[in-house]
User: Fold Isoleucine--tRNA ligase from Ferrovibrio xuzhouensis.
Amino acid sequence: MTKDYRPTVFLPTTDFPMKAGLPAKEPEILARWEKIGLYEKLRADSKGREKFILHDGPPYANGHLHIGHALNKILKDVINRSRQMMGFDANYVPGWDCHGLPIEWKIEEKYRAAGKNKDDVPIDEFRKECRDFAEHWIGIQREEFKRLGVVGDWKNPYTTMSFAAEAQIVREIQKFLMNGGLFKGSKPVMWSVVERTALAEAEVEYHEHTSSTVFTKFPVVKAADKALDGASIVIWTTTPWTLPGNRAIALSKDADYVRLRVDAVGEKSLAKVGDEVVVARDLAETVAKACAIDSHTVLATLKGAAILGTVCAHPLRGQGYEFDVPVLHGDFVTLDAGTGFVHIAPGHGADDYNLGTANGIEVPHTVDADGTYFHHVPIFGGEHPARVLDDAGKDGDANGRVIATMIEAGALLGKGRLRHQYPHSWRSKAPLIFRNTPQWFISMTTNDLRKKALAAIDATAFYPAGGRNRLYAMIEQRPDWVISRQRAWGVPIAVFENRETGELLRDPEVNERIVEACLKGGADAWFTAKPADFLGNQYNPSDWKMVTDILDVWFDSGSTHSFVLEQRPDLQWPASLYLEGSDQHRGWFHSSLLESCGTRGRAPYDAVLTHGFTLDEKGRKMSKSLGNTVEPQDVIKQSGADILRLWVVSSDYSDDLSVGKGIIQAQSDAYRRLRNTLRYLLGNLSGFAESERLPFEEMPELERWVLHRLAELGRIVRESCADYDFHRMYVAIYNFCAVDLSSFYFDIRKDALYCDAPDSNRRRAARTVLDALFDCLVKWLAPFISFTAEEAWLTRFPSAEGSVHREVFPTLPEQWLNPALGEKWEKVRRVRRAVTGALELERAEKRIGASLQAHPVVYASAEDLEAVLDLDFAEICITSGITLREGEGPAEAFRSEDARGVAVTSQLAEGHKCERCWQVLPEVGEIAGHEDLCRRCTTAVG
Assistant:
């Protein structure tokens, strides 16, 4: 009967389970972190270290977290944990954006459902409901963020609605008041009729929209060139409702224009035979076709420069539109579409405004806040004004009435419809209009704000680098910053305006009284107090008006650096890093830059990192209507937060990231590889003691090669963390675990670990290397799979208050790095691949069962053989013997593409099988008393 040697084999022993059970295990680890005060311990551990401060871009306190939130917060946590473990004090203070329209809109919806009118509710009561709504969602989101494994000061986060924050935001706007950067102007701004407020560019998104189009004739009344006498200049517009606001026409001075006579028209054409009109030469045929002009004659051709100075009449002259319409040059005029002439309504567009004001043309007030024409607008105002958009954002009757009036006046050459991209509110999703309205602005030129901001961009590091150009282009071209909103929930523009002159009150004492009131009662104090409470005895309250507009929420979030980084002693200004999605080049990065440059002369950050958006597995944008959304809560419930964290770092987050069931499953598979690596290490390190550690100099070459690879990987880890290139780091670690360890080193050393005597140098060397591998891998993986790394660490080092996250990345000895050894083992592994391929073929043909039954013969060049001759190459190939021969080998030998120049023939190993290690050796059967064992195993069991 064969003796059972299993009790003598040193099999792996560990309590670290193969099955992770993350959905159940992670909450236990979170509870432990809470119990031991991990965040507080990290702060105490890192006291006196160099600070690394990632300033949290505040998410909006409105609704459950989506997958984009998970991506953002996990990435921030990976960065903070990695910097902490690189020896920094990486204190993370999370925050929330609390003001603004989405919350206000929710409260208004509740009122409408109850049949209440918001305007009938005292403003302090309304604002309290908004505050309570935000507080409710902060509580929910806080727990959802913590469940992702994000460590931070969750007990003391910042919020833009705290009294101290609101007071500081008021201080910040007062700085612009005092330095002259704040001014009131009347400019065309993006306006939401639905929400009754101006919107910043960052709050605008573009969607498909169908617009009415018209070709409108402007009769020439004063010709700069005789070729224009008696003709009409034709403009094309997709916003007929803006024609009452027309005050000029723009052309390109370098373009060619033609005067056409209409000779024949189609049945439904609005053009008339005999009409003589002027359009761009390159667009003449397109205009003729669009206006159903069947034939025409070119009467004259002239350059745009020759037309400059021409004056036209408004198409509705004689009906209240008696002003002249001059023809001007506009750099923005192109010949891509239309007629080559652009209708200029200074109150309804940025280019229009700039061109009009540069030429001394009035900027009319045409459309009111509700989308109706003002009473004074001829034809379309009055007692029954036309309306551009209704309260729901649907088309009103303005376009129809304008078009009908133009047709009646004989002013239209043609009309149509166009499907195109049009600005919409990102909240209500309703179309917007450009309208001239008094607003508050921060000047881009006063105090050289634009120049300072551009210089600050040049001084900032961007990840990826292309973010610099994007932000630079935006700042370079942007108009003055519209900071006012006509809403109720937010921080007020707490300044006084002289009722007679419009002059702003710039008094430090008044400013300080306002701030003090906000510190005590929040920004509500501005809305509930009387002017005299702030003005004191120096000013007559009847002379001054309190501004009731509130600040754009981007000013709020752009000011967070002032009441978080500057005012918390555990942080520092400027931040080491700002990190958000790539849309924040026009949002938080942008507003923070302008606010800080306007008040402090530099950016509030040293570096900016952007990540992409989340898409489904087909690369489509996620939407509930498509049913392709992935909720982080569902992934956590089914697979665990570590799988989400692995998805983030395994993706190239500088681009858009795809996620779906298939991708989550792939991450689960990859996670198992990493977990099994940790489990293998833990199992084979059971009982490891310092006394068995083997000095580096006494280690076999295989172990020294593993340590060389570990040192190479250590460099990649530190470089990747420094560059925020976690994708590179993850790929390097994963491949190391899968290829270098699992498929190579672990496979080879399994025999020594299981069967060598405990005091053998080979086993001691292997266990010493496994200890180094565990120490490095568990720490390097800690920022990624934070829960699993903690579980593995505590399995090996149980402790009441210890944590892998309190450790630092290991500093590896320089002597481990050996490029020459690395090159040699590349050759060793290449030759081994040929042997492995040959053995796989033998197994497939059932000529052997296990590789230990084989004794391959390897044919290779002298150079290749040199790499393996001084090794126990049979051990490396996991065979019981091996023969090495120089030469090409027989024709029937096995060869493979990835090991060119190497040939292998296979034969069975000679001897008998050792019942303990299963090697087939001639010595088995020759040892008295241990006839079923080899010499090594006899010693091990003896």
Remarks:
- The chain has 29 helices and 31 strands.
